[in-house]
Amino acid sequence: MPAAPPAGPTGPDWEGVRLHVVTGKGGTGKTTVAAALALALAKEGRRTLLIEVEERQGIAELFGIAALPYEERKVAGGRGHGEVFALAIDIEQALLEYLEMFYKLGRAGKALRKLGFIDFATTIAPGLRDVLLTGKACEAVRRRRPDGRRVYDAVVMDAPPTGRVTRFLNINTEVAGLARVGPIHNQSQAVMRVIQSPETAVHLVTLLEEMPVQETVDGVADLQAAKLPVGGVFVNMVRPPVLDQAALLAAEDGHEEELALALTEAGLGGRRTAANGGGPGPTVRKLVGPLLAEGREHAARVELERAQRADIQGLRLPTYELPQLPGGVDLGGLYRLAAELRTQGAA
């Protein structure tokens, strides 16, 4: 269950937060969590936009649809008739859009693409790439309809991994030597006003394993040092407990005779008669060793997870746990995870 934060957003909706940046160590399922969060936020008629910035088409794969073009498309309906739209940002098209918007290059911009200028520009000036990616998300946050209402109630960004997210979001540092005046400078300033505002929260996804948890702890410290708004911690793929505390202790201690007798009492392998000595039979005896080995392994994993939970709780951030889904994640699984997030207060 989520732990209440000492300060920051309150209430089940992260009230006031409109840009949810989701990051995490590779392999923790950050794209899955981002998609589930977008579904969870799309409730009671709300509209959310799920943005992918790494050009992996992970969103399309999760929702079981064709590769997303560079346009916002509806991918699912949330509970309560809400809607989820998705956008996979194509960096080349985003730069062309930017050149047209600020420099009115039009066909010249397309010619630059053919000449390889786009790759050249984003390679020698990586800060420009980050301005384009974050700028697109912030524009969606600010966008309004003709009647003044927001186009999207929330925007969820599937961001780069934890080790790169602070640099990715802290674009002021990246563009400082690139442009001190002009459209790029102005764009970066506008983006940072959104990212550093109470409208934004950077959530971190982890597993109950040593390396992902340590990267989460380090990531929180980096974000806080850069004065970027830290959100919650999403513990993904949590396995349910198999043994109670007494059974775990028994597994650790290796009570072979007690286990053999219990298996015999349960009718496994049959009981030897008084004539041949009584007690557990040979079938049961063969099972005891492997079962105890599995029990000890499970007990060690539970102890490790307990220690990792303690490290996460030490961050004093809202924490949410999502179950491991048997058979992988499909659209039905995403809706189940979204329901878990609502139940736990994340949306």
UniProtKB/TrEMBL annotation:
SUPFAM superfamilies: P-loop containing nucleoside triphosphate hydrolases. GO terms for molecular function: ATP binding; ATP hydrolysis activity. InterPro entries: ArsA/GET3_ATPase-like, ATPase_ArsA/GET3, P-loop_NTPase. Residues 19-192 form the ArsA/GET3 Anion-transporting ATPase-like domain. It comes from the Bacteria. This is Anion-transporting ATPase, ArsA/GET3 family.
